[in-house]
Write a structure and sequence with these properties.
203 residues, aromatic amino acid biosynthesis, Rossmann fold, single chain, amino-acid biosynthesis, alpha/beta, five-stranded parallel β-sheet, magnesium, Shikimate/glucono_kinase, 5 strands
Amino acid sequence: MNVEESAVIEEVLVERPIHHYAHLLPSIFLVGPMGAGKTTIGKLLAKHLKRPFLDADWYISEKAGADIPWIFAKEGESGFRERESRAMDELSAMPDIVLATGGGVVERECNREYLQRGLVIFLDASVDTQIHRTKKDKNRPLLKNDNPRAVLEMLYQRRAPLYKEVADITVATGRAYPKQMMNEILDILIAYVKDIESKSSVI
């Protein structure tokens, strides 16, 4: 996370009574393409819910004692995906967390099953948004080529149906500031919990 993102997290204050409902929410898992803002939004959401924030890529790196590019270089993408699935099994079993996942997590069926253990928010970002947000990031092994746009377009076409398959909530990113996005997400979560409460009272 860069300095600008860190500053955003400190500055964004959203007035929503989410604390009244936080205990009724399961663990929250953020999915979406590279550059969708999963880490930034995840940190903000965790702050408002007063929950631990975890990032799957950071977790994998810490377990491996190496960064993601090193894992890709030494073990290939298949090796990384094996590590990612083990991490997802462990992380998705943790209660009351906010978890940012990697862009390719949905491609494995076992990971999609792990995601069913919580509430999944799909942060949907256009390829233009992804290009803008990842162009200076050197920690993206899949984009180390002469045509990152083509790679992002191909990945989005392949993964978008899978993001939609696992998502309980979908939020478009890239068109609003973090504060606006947080307002939208918190309103959706409050409505989600109220809906659960109303159904429970009927039963």
